[in-house]
Hints:
Blueprint: E1 22-25, E2 60-63, E3 72-75, E4 82-86, E5 95-97, E6 107-113, E7 122-127, E8 130-136, E9 142-144, E10 156-162, E11 171-176, E12 191-197, E13 200-203, E14 212-219, E15 228-234, E16 247-254, E17 260-264, H1 266-272, E18 280-284, E19 293-297, E20 302-305, E21 319-321, E22 332-338, E23 347-352, H2 358-361, E24 372-377, E25 380-383, E26 403-409, E27 418-423, E28 429-433, E29 438-443, E30 452-457, E31 460-465, E32 468-469, E33 479-485, E34 489-490, E35 492-496, E36 502-504, E37 508-509, E38 511-513
Parallel strand pairs: 29-38
Antiparallel strand pairs: 1-28, 2-3, 3-4, 4-5, 6-7, 7-8, 8-9, 10-11, 11-12, 12-13, 14-15, 14-32, 15-16, 16-17, 18-19, 19-20, 20-21, 22-23, 23-24, 24-25, 26-27, 27-28, 29-33, 30-31, 30-35, 34-37, 35-36
Amino acid sequence: MFVACGDDGATGTPDAGVPVLFEPIDVLDDGVVAVDPADDPCAVLGPGCIPDGASFGVGAGVGDVDGDGRIDLYLGGANGGTLLLNRSSTGAVSFSPGATVNAVDYVHAAAFGDLDGDGDQDLALGTAAGLRLYENDGAGNFSEATVNLALTAERTTSIAIADLNADGRLDLHVCDYGVPGAASSTAGPGMLLINDGAWTFHDLATAWPGRHDWASAFADVDKDGRLDLMIASETWVEDDPDEQPSSLFYNNGADGAGDPLLSQSSSFEAALAQFTTPMAIAFGDVNADGELDVLVSVIGPLVYMGRADSDPRSWMAASFFGPSVEEAFTTAWAAALDDFDGDGSLDALVINGSPCTPDDCAPLMPTSQPVRLLRYADDNFEYLGERPVANAGGMHDESYRNGRGLVLADFDGDGLEELLVTPFNDRFRLYRRVYAGNTLRVALPRTAYGAEVAVTIGSTTRTRQLISGGRTHSQSEPALTFLLGDATTADNVVITYLDGSTDSLGPTPAGVIRP
């Protein structure tokens, strides 16, 4: 079984001979995503570069745009972004350039989904000028869709897509950060777009106050068969009475018009109130009590929140933890909860990066901040110095330490997801998952967000929920991976959907399944 790289404790260097969880794939450095050399100042750094005046990272999203069964990739950036068609075979990742998507501004966020219900993957892009929606012709060619309302936002940082009102159509939550450093009243409320079909939407967030939003996620948090919505928002602007905290909106069913009846959780907001810089969200049943917990990434420590007592809508006070004192001022932009090392417990993979340039940050905050792995133990996470990403020489990737978003997708179809880290002032980096055992990967449609997948081997059953969003700037494949170790078959796989229906698959061989 593979485990993550560790530190020697004294110098921060990797332990000799300890394998890593991710190793680099250099296909994104071979000219596929090359840019026009005349596009100064991003000619050298490529599509992950931030032009002068921009403050945030870049977006990335995944979906099968041409219907060939492989997950394609859209990379945002200063030049309107790049669509890459997946040409991988098992164990060998490769891409070729796809059709041009006519984004006219800097792209901070990307998300795929069948927004018009015609069976192919359309594209939502978050730009410095707001949201833009693109219709897929079924072959991976995109044209900007004509919609019925203005899609505005001062700076769209993330997009989450799911069927919030259970009508069979995908809805969108769009995060709007606004102007950095300005009062939240100058930002928009973001958008909660309910899909009415045929590229028509209505926005449930128009009456919400302005907020500095980074990321949002859809999940059935209280397990009542309805998707809820969490939004990670900063509240650090001094003397701003209108600052909106990070919020959890419970879905209480539909009103007479079919719109979700949303209520804010005061318990959740009170538990998280002391933390002013939430940036991303990761849901998972960390302590295996049957309830979803949440990991919130912030500047400095990370925040872990579990349930109070047995009330599915009551949250205990947040606990926080972080790296060593000498690395205390880190900024965690994205996180994923998964069993990365195969021990059966959820680990936290955290993407870190400086929020500013070296001249602006020094000496308060390091401008080089590594990807970290944290393990759960004794009702909290602990950082053991493990840095799970390797460079070409097999050691920790010390050359790349300024990430933003996190994408997990199985590009080569081998049953293990690859890791894409979206950058700030650097190139995108792609890594291959390293695991010696067998895997079972369950890939579901995006209309199935909120479904739970239970995999049983012998007397052990592991259950995971399919979550949409939560990661700044980025979107992952709607799939869950279960590490089987030496087992070649799961004794049973049961998928429970939000409407209560189930698929019981019985004995299921290792590999990738698409129920």
